[in-house]
Amino acid sequence: MEIVAHGLWAAAAAITARRSTKASVHVGWAVWWAAFPDVLAFGPQVAVGLWLRFAGSSAAADGHALPHVHIGLPLYPAGHSLLVFLLVFGLVTILARRIVFEMLGWLMHILIDIPTHSLSYYATRFLWPISDYRIDGIAWWTPWFWAATYGALVVVYVLLWKKGWISPARRRVCKLAESESAASR
Ligand SMILES: [Zn+2]
Question: How far is the CA of 164 from the centre of ligand 1 (A)?
Fold first, then answer.
């Protein structure tokens, strides 16, 4: 799946979690963690490419917007591995002494990517580095599948909106201030 859809699914999940369980889940951080595997995979390349471009490097972009940079680190498989996720999630849970629910956005990203990539392009090696096992799923860029994804997202967000769970931040702050002043009375 692409990064925008990942972010939208994670935001919907985070909104549902905080509204239905009273858990303190920060929607913005959930979106960040949902984007994280692809930011990790492509961010450094884009950053170095931009830097080379604006540093006026003669390393020709050969017709591309950015010069092609190969970093040579297994960032894509690392960010898309359930084993790496569990390791990092476990460490963060121990260090933070709480479950950082927002990090489940990362888990969601991997689980969504497993069936939405085909063998021909970045099939998710979710057991990396132990196994290269992968699934030949439906590529997310298949037009009908992409349309269905966004159709489903529209349905989900309409449902969230109808439940009144998507309220402008300002109103939420006012409500919070109201309840705080009520509590201090
Ligand atoms: Zn991905």
Answer: 31
